[in-house]
């Protein structure tokens, strides 16, 4: 029965009773007046309430309750509207309210109703969007309820129903999480990558993609995502820790230590970060510092087994057998029982792992691992790993002079922009290549040059486009982006382009190309002509463009593929350079640009950074050019026994002025 009709009956009964009261001669006038007053008090709010609760008034109450987070009130109001109208829209809104109230079963029932009715309700179809998409909402519920197969179905239906970018972002992200939880990593990667292509700053998808890349042991790619996350969320200490783990897996202990140190600086109460930093120091043969760091970890969490386990590993690496056993026993007493913890770190115990005592210790604590098989695997790599841990070169890696104590220019130039690319790992992206074709130290070159771009050139960090192991589509977008920055700054832009990596010349024209990591030298149509890059950089008026090339433009035949030398034949044609541009190259004519192995950099990049550090940026372009020509040519003969001469080129427009330009 209609609520308004029931209200009418109540009023009618009250009115009849009041009339009888007034007609009674046995009731005093005072009682009659009091009764009339009470009746009016009853009628007024009831009428007003009835008006407010009917039609649009009730819908507005429901919406307001939802917006302020009063979901029980919203559910009650939408339930009343459903009773009165059975409208599909109200089922949808109540489903949203149930979902927000964490009543997933009830929400699921409402969205099921909406989906069963929606095709027959034309008025609802017009509301379909990201917000009004029952498949999307139901997909997230199924994801939370761990119905991953059902979630994939719903998110796919959501995309089919509404292919707007906003809906694709939400649906692909949810579907990617469902795929990930089913260990369908390829499909998950595709979905997260789709989201990131539409919204490069989508933190959730970046985190998920980084995690799956790590799981696939694609550590360099995972690092790229973690660095993007840090750019968006610089105070996220857990991300620095995850980044450190990636560097550990790549055996880049110095970079791993830097990340763990940042994590502990941001969250000094977290024991794990000090323990992880201690392991890096041990791998770099810095045992005194390692002990200080691991003792700090134990001080923060003396009840956890893991810090004692790490301390045992450090003692073993340092040749202290008894102390290693002592801390292993402490770790077991604190609850260590996971076999995989030993399997993953067994090589750290190579000092003791052949001991009968070690095997007995594992047996007593029910650690069941195939020790013989693991030992065989370790023995194949023992010499390599041992060298990486104790080699003096690893120790000196932390002390490369140009990587530390970088001068700091407090002045930042808002119209300075930099595109920095370090393409090192080609073999991971092209299965027909082996690791020998990778460009040694290119990633390190780019990362350290970025520090100089910020601290010496004065480029604001947000003005830097930074890429490691860039693919063709990513490089294309980056070059277009810096071109647009130049276009939209009304001639005020100062552009810096730095590239370390492979290149290759066209077989006929010999014109050099820059090679993305996913492009074969046999298929240059997906690579980038240097002349086209110069053209993009100078297409619009600007103050100046500076190019640094420590790159390989190898002149061999195509069937030789990419070579390990960094560069040859980079002299631009006379008509290639236009506008306010200066180009510094690693080589002259057909020489190779080689690494400086003792300094962990390309030879050209090392001396570029060295002069920037020594001068603190107080240097002209001509002075920098003269220094590079002299130092690179002399040092190349001494360390590589080959000639290599850095060259500087400029456009005719700046023929008489470029030499007086200053770095800062």
Mean pLDDT level = 83
Using DSSP, what is the number of strands? 10
Distance between the termini: 82 Å
What count of helical segments does DSSP give? 28
User: What is the general shape?
Assistant: globular
Q: Which band does the percent of strand residues land in?
A: 5-15%
Low-confidence stretches: 1-11, 43-55, 374-398, 554-570
Helix-strand category:
alpha/beta
Largest sheet: 8 strands, mixed
Rg calc: 35 Å
Percentage of residues assigned to helices: 55-70%
Quick overview of this protein structure:
The protein is 58% helix and 8% strand.
Question: What does this protein structure show overall?
Answer:
The chain has 664 residues and is an alpha/beta fold. It has 28 helices and ten strands. It has helices spanning 3-23, 29-53, 56-67, 71-85, 88-100, 104-118, 122-125, 134-144, 148-161, 165-181, 185-198, 203-215, 219-232, 237-249, 253-266, 271-283, 287-300, 305-317, 321-333, 339-345, 356-364, 371-390, 392-397, 442-455, 472-487, 530-538, 603-615, 621-640, and strands spanning 416-422, 464-468, 494-505, 512-514, 528-529, 544-553, 581-585, 595-596, 601-602, 647-650. Strands 1, 2, 3, 4, 5, 6, 7 and 10 form an eight-stranded mixed β-sheet that branches. Strands 8-9 form a two-stranded antiparallel sheet. Strand 1, helix 24 and strand 2 (464-468) form a beta-alpha-beta unit. Helix 10 (165-181) packs parallel to helix 12 (203-215). The longest helix has 25 residues, at 29-53. The chain is globular. Residues 1-11, 43-55, 374-398 and 554-570 have low confidence and may be disordered.
């Amino acid at each position: 029965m209609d609520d308004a009709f029931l209200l009418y009956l109540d009023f009618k009964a009250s009115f009849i009773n009041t009339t009888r009261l007034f007609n009674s001669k046995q009731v005093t006038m005072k009682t009659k007046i009091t009764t009339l007053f009470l009746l009016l008090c009853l009628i007024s709010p009831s009428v007003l309430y009835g008006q407010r609760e009917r039609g649009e008034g009730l819908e507005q109450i429901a919406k307001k309750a939802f917006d302020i987070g009063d979901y029980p009130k919203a559910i009650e109001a939408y339930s009343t509207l459903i009773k009165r109208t059975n409208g599909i829209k109200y089922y949808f809104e109540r489903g949203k309210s149930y979902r927000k109230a964490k009543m997933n079963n009830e929400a699921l029932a409402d969205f099921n109703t909406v989906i069963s009715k929606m095709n027959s309700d034309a008025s609802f179809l017009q509301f379909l969007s990201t917000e009004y998409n029952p498949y999307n909402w139901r997909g997230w519920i199924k994801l939370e309820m761990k119905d991953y197969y059902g979630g994939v179905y719903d998110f796919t239906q959501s995309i089919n129903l509404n292919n707007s970018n906003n809906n694709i972002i939400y649906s692909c992200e949810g579907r990617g999480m469902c795929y990930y939880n089913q260990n369908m990593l390829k499909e998950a990667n595709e979905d997260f990558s789709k989201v990131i292509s539409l919204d490069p700053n989508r933190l959730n998808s970046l985190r998920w993609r980084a995690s799956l890349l790590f799981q696939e042991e694609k550590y360099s790619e995972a690092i790229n995502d973690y660095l993007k996350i840090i750019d968006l969320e610089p105070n996220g200490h857990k991300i620095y820790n995850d980044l450190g783990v990636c560097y550990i897996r790549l055996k880049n202990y110095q970079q791993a230590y830097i990340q763990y140190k940042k994590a502990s600086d941001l969250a000094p109460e977290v024991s794990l970060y000090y323990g992880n930093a201690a392991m890096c120091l041990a791998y770099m043969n810095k045992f005194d510092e390692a002990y200080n760091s691991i003792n700090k970890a134990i001080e923060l969490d003396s009840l956890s087994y893991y810090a004692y386990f790490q301390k045992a590993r450090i003692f073993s690496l340092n040749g202290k057998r008894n102390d290693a056993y002592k801390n292993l026993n402490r770790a077991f007493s604190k609850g260590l029982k996971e076999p995989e913890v030993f399997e993953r770190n067994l090589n750290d115990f190579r000092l003791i792992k052949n001991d009968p005592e070690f095997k007995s210790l594992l047996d007593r604590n029910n650690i069941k691992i195939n020790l013989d098989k693991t030992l065989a695997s370790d023995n194949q790599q023992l010499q390599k790993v041992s060298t990486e841990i104790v080699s003096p070169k690893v120790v000196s890696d932390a002390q490369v002079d140009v990587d530390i104590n970088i001068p700091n220019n407090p002045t930042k130039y808002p119209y300075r922009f930099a595109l920095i690319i370090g393409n090192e790992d080609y073999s991971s992206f092209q299965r027909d290549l082996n690791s020998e074709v990778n460009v040694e130290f290119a990633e390190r070159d780019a990362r350290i040059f970025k520090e100089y771009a910020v601290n010496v050139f004065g480029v604001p960090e947000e003005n830097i486009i930074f890429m490691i192991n860039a693919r063709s589509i990513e490089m294309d977008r980056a070059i277009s982006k810096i071109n647009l920055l130049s276009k939209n700054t009304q001639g005020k832009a100062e552009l810096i382009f730095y590239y370390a990596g492979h290149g290759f010349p066209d077989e006929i024209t010999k014109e050099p190309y820059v090679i993305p990591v996913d492009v074969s030298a046999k298929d240059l149509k997906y690579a980038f002509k240097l002349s086209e890059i110069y053209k993009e950089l100078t297409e619009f008026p600007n103050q100046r463009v500076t190019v640094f090339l420590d790159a390989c433009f190898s002149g061999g035949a195509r069937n030789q593929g990419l070579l390990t030398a960094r560069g040859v034949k980079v002299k631009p044609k006379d008509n290639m350079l236009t506008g306010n541009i200066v180009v510094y190259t690693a080589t002259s004519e057909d020489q190779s640009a080689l690494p400086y192995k003792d300094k962990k950099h390309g030879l050209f990049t090392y001396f570029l950074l060295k002069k920037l550090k020594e001068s603190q940026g107080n240097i002209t372009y001509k002075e920098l050019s003269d220094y590079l020509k002299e130092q690179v040519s002399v040092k190349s003969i001494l360390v590589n026994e080959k000639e290599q001469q850095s060259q500087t080129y400029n456009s005719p427009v700046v023929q008489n002025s470029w030499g007086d330009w200053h770095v800062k």
